[in-house]
Amino acid sequence: MSVESAIDPRLSSAGSGWVDQVFGWVPKRLRNLGVIAALVFIAWVLFAANGRWTLVGQQVVAGLNTGSIAALAGLGLVVAYRATGVFNFAFAGIATISAFVMYELTFYHSVPRVIAMAIVVLGVGPLMGALMDLVVFRSLERRSAGTAEKLVANLGVLILLLGIGAVVYGEQSYQPNPIFSQSQAFQIGSGNGAVPVSWAVVGDVLVIVAAASILIAVFRYTPLGRQVRAVVDRRGLAELCVVNANRISMLSWAIGASFAALAGTLDAPQLGLQNGLFAIQILQTISVAVIARLRNIGAAIAAGLGLGVVQSLTSILHSPHYPSWLTWLPHVRDDIQVQIPILALLAFLLIYRTLDEAGTAGTGGLVTAAFGRNTRRSPAASFWGGLVILVGLVVIPLVLHGSNLQTAGEVVAFAVTFLSIVAVTGYSGHISLATSAFAGLGGYVTERLIQGRLPIPVGTAVGHVPVIVAMLIGGLLMVPVGIVIGYSALRRKGLILGLVTLAFAVIVNAFVFQSQSWFKNNNTSGVARPHFFGLSLQSDRRFLYFELVILALVLLLVRNLRSGVLGRILGAMRDSEKGAVSVGISLRRYKLLIFGASSFIAAIGGSLIAQQQGTLNLQPSGPLSPLAGLYWFGAVVVFGLSYRTSAIAAATLFVAFDVLVGKDQASLIIIGIIALFIGYLPGGLIGSLLRWFRGDSTDEASPMQRSLVAYALVQQRVESAPPVGDGLEPSAFAERLLTGSRR
Amino acid sequence: MTSPAATLNGAKLEVHNLTKSFDGFVAVRDASLIAEPGRVTSLIGPNGAGKTTMFHAISGIAPPDRGTVLLGGRDLGGMTPDKRARAGMARTFQILELFGGLSVFENLQVAVEGRSTNRIWRDLFSLRHKDDPQVRARVEQALELVGITHLAHRPAGSLPTGLSRLVELARALCTEPQVLLLDEPASGLSGAETDRLHEVLSSLADLGLTILLVEHDIDLVMALSKHIYVLDFGTMIAQGAPADVRADAAVRAAYLGTEAEV
Ligand SMILES: Nc1ncnc2c1ncn2[C@@H]1O[C@H](COP(=O)(O)OP(=O)(O)OP(=O)(O)O)[C@@H](O)[C@H]1O
Ligand SMILES: [Mg+2]
Predict the structure, then answer these.
(1) Helix, coil or strand: residue A2
(2) Are residues A68 and A128 in the same domain?
(3) Which of A575, A587, A724 lies at the smallest CB-CB distance from B99?
(4) What's the number of domains chain A is made of?
């Protein structure tokens, strides 16, 4: 009997064989399934290879190459996450900017590749990481900000970096030279069956091995490394011992950023370098970190290499004999191969249900309560207020001219779309990054129906459908899709839900928007504006009126999600799910309802965007790309998730600022910068402004209480943490937690 | 004190052989208890004994690995927590689970309304949302019963812990419960508030409600309960009337060094 089990009879000594040590991160019920899946895949490959061993060998080598880069990026994510508790979305931005700097150095300034690489990986990358820590996350940490605030600040870094990339480098695609020569280094085997290995592969793999070894060596053998490891292993405990937390976290950010920079510079020659596009490809290596449950460094390396090899081997699995009803499948197969990382991401997110998340996963801090909602406005005030708005709505389109009208029209279309974010995240507390997918699908359905085709791959012709009807159908069709996504939200919140929805957006983009069989004609297609009872809404001014009517209706719908019984129920659910179920509220019903409603709104918005622009643009870097969903989320958060006005304000900034400055995506820089400081703006710009006017204070807990609660939340498995004001001294409290928890 | 109704429909709560483990760590092993209508039954034990875990298992928030939960003879096994709540199980939380963004009044309102879907679709598509006067009356009753009418329009997120616990109690009462599970309702309460709580709980029990109480304030437990269960390291080590439990040797051993006296 171990010491522990002598203390507490409930503790059985857990399995300690090497299998448990190595695969401890895999949930037990999954291990067998994983082994079976691996065996089936290997058998399938062997069968399909049919003696072409050279091919298999080549694919494995190629897979190891791409896989090692992914492993590297994933490694950086895991290290940064474990040490700082922040999931570093910005790593994609760091990788992109690093790749651009590398390109700049080697191409324009003829710096030798090795030196340029050293500058980027050891200088620029870590500097960005350290700056992130210094400017943003240190103060968030000191204020014991919630997970959601850190997530948004991090998203802000991504948006800012990509905004800078967009303003400086635009939409062009650059082709950096490979770092290592493509010529053959050596071959495995000899004669006909030899597998050639290029210097590029050797170089990439060596760099990864070196980077990983340095990381491991630093971790193992230096005092600093031990401290990082302490933080990585047991955040709470290490914080209690007050290891120099600032130094550790800065170091971790720098290491994470350096790895991102390395991955970016190595990947850019292979993928081509186009600002948003490159970032979204890098972003897919999230799957590596997720498969490792954001926890296990070895697992991250294995997952990266494994995914790379599987992805590359898939190209062997090719059968030319598809039955006729599956004729669209070959495209799908190609898509699948490219999208294996993101499909794996979605699959594992759905299997895991929770990541090893630190802290609460809600939207605390972002969606601060709209305190004082009870003070009802007087009827007279509402009447006059309403009248002013109404007159404004009638007059504004009259005074605008030319391109200003178009800008206004675009603002309104985006405002409608953004309202879906207010509904799903602001009112019910679910982080959804898939708004762009719903908007795009809404636009897609509208476009197909207007063209007289069904919105499916082999779109058989139907009669012409009027625009308004097509738009409505698009909205209604997205309700069940939204409900399906809502199912994933039944047991997920926060980061993991954000990742699920992001994966969904990427998958929709890859399999629908970019797929030949769903959408021919180079991803853009003309979309007409409505005719209404013989009245053409073709002119910009008339169309703006039409949009304003839609906006008013959607505002009303969203308002109804906020008030009355439904509003109270959604608010209750957002503030405390346990509390809500304890009074008999069915989470399933209302989560699905809110996801359905917000998908409807997003689809209507997407349809309006398409009608406004006159084309449906589903280009991978277009206005409805997965990255756009991230930008939109950031824009709404910046103004305040729980206010309808913030959708309008965010749309105005998002659209009008770019027009004003004359640079596409310039607004991203503003949005990114404000998002960095979201920790100081509880409730966003609008929320803070309102609070300032009303003179309310943000929270009543002292910093000590806040940090105690934060600590309790870190230890959230221990349900026995006492609430604030319990009268327990910090030391006694910590002692109790530490003896109470044996994790 | 005005009572919400002449009688409350308490129902007998039976828990049989409940076991709950986390990753091989058995937090509650084979524990059984019975709470009769019309009286307060208490569950005590040192920190980490598994009391909250047991509450979560009974209310369905963290369903047990094994064991049955019967309310008024009806098996609640496999039911989601919201369904259990609609079946008459109400509870409060050791770590507060109030709806911080709503006012106290709204917290209670949602507890009255949240169980039915009557008004949802109407509310979604209508222009005006008027509060149901019957609901308001119920809420006002509950506020008055617990003695927090003056807090009605405060944002729930801004209240100190003690008052928040009272709001949770009032909220639980708004769901027309048959059994009330209270997880440390007195922690964070002032002396006067504790007295008030004492008064409320005993009158609720007198009215016929079933109350299962987890509490570290031993004086309160001894004064209120008719029957006490003692949990230690996840197993029931004793049960009986307050005087018997106080005298029990195993209980004294379990508490030695953690709680000053029993
Ligand atoms: N979700 C969880 N995962 C792992 N262990 C848990 C979890 N919840 C509780 N435990 C463990 O189960 C044991 C019982 O915890 P529980 O919260 O039920 O105790 P308690 O009797 O309510 O204590 P207290 O009086 O401090 O509230 C503790 O050791 C705790 O660490
Ligand atoms: Mg407890």
Answers:
(1) coil
(2) yes
(3) A575
(4) 3
The confidence band for B6, taking pLDDT boundaries of 50, 70 and 90, is very low
Q: Which ligand has its closest atom nearest to the C-alpha of B18?
A: 1
User: Whose structure tokens read 């709505």?
Assistant: A393
CB of B52 shorter than 6 A to ligand 1: yes
Does residue A16 lie within any of the structural domains?
no
Chain A residues in contact with B111 (beta carbon < 8 A) = 583-584
C-alpha–C-alpha distance, residues A679 and A667, integer Å: 20
Going by CATH, does the domain composed of B4-99+177-256 fall within 3.40.50.300? yes
Which token pair is A603? 């689809």
The nearest alpha carbon in chain A to B28 belongs to A10
pLDDT value, residue B57: 93
Which domain-ending residue is among A293, A325, A351? A351
Average pLDDT over residues A523-545: 77
Whether residue A367 and residue B129 make contact (CB cut-off 8 A), yes or no, is: no
Q: Is residue A22's pLDDT more than 60?
A: no
C-alpha distances in angstroms, A363 versus A34, A324, B107, B148?
34, 48, 19, 29
Residues in chain A with CB shorter than 8 Å from the CB of B86 are: 584
Give the residue numbers spanning the domain of A736. 703-742
Q: Would you call A111 exposed, middle or buried from its count of C-beta atoms within 10 A (0-12, 13-18, 19+)? A: middle
Let me know whether A68 and A93 are in one domain: yes
CA distance A198 to B17: 65
Closest-lying ligand 1 atom to the alpha carbon of residue A741: 31
Quick check: is A622 in a domain? yes
pLDDT for A14 equals 42
State mean pLDDT over B206-226. 90
**How many Cβ pairs closer than 8 A exist between chain A and B?**
185
Regarding whether A716 and A623 lie in a shared domain, the answer is: no
Which residue on chain B is closest to A568 by alpha carbon? B110
- Give the pLDDT score at A585: 92
User: Which residues have C-beta under 5 Å from ligand 2, the single-atom ion?
Assistant: A 720; B 51-52, 94
Same structural domain for residues A340 and A455? no
Backbone conformation region of residue B239, classed left if phi is above 0, alpha if psi is from -120 to 50, else beta: beta
Q: Looking at beta carbons, which residues of chain A come within 8 Å of B164?
A: 723
Q: Kindly report the nearest CA distance between residue A732 and chain B, in angstroms.
A: 12
B101 CB less than 6 Å from ligand 1? no
The whole-number average pLDDT for the span A202-231 is 78
Domain ranges for chain B: 4-99+177-256
Instruction: Please report the atom of ligand 1 found closest to the CA of residue B231.
Output: 21
Enter the ipTM: 0.91
Start-to-end CA distance of chain A, whole Å, equals: 18
- A186 and A129 in a single domain? The answer is yes
Q: What angle do CA A497, A159, A123 make, to 5 degrees?
A: 110
* Contact across the interface for B82 and A370, Cβ inside 8 Å: no
Report angle CA A543, A549, A552 to the nearest 5 degrees: 140
- What are the chain A neighbours of B25 within 8 Å (beta carbons)? 10-12, 742
Atom of ligand 1 nearest to the CA of B45: 21
Percent of residues, chain A, with pLDDT higher than 70? 76
Residue A478 domain-assigned (yes or no):
yes
Task: Provide the pairing of β-strand A531-532 with A524-526.
Answer: unpaired
Q: What ligand has the least distance to the C-alpha of A736?
A: 1
Residue of minimum CA distance from atom 24 in ligand 1:
B47
